[in-house]
Amino acid sequence: MAARFGTVSFPITSVTCSTKCRYVTAFQTVVALAEYQAAEEKSTEIEIKTEYMDQVVKMSRRFKDYLSSLPDGNIAKKALRYGKRNDNFN
Asked: Residue ranges of the domains in the chain?
């Protein structure tokens, strides 16, 4: 498969990411979606579309929401439960 490179703009800033690794993983997922689509279409060119990034952003948010819904699903809830957080600090 061939890949064309160009300038693309994705709404990555709309997702809270604490590390560069999350950006890399998100982009790798976008590329995987593009490769899958090209294979399905039996195309030799991989086209990265904004809709792929939209799908990854939506999936990431939904997964984060799911984890937050669990009793120990996020660090803040876990810290509060085990007394490792001071909510009264000014």
From this structure: 17-50
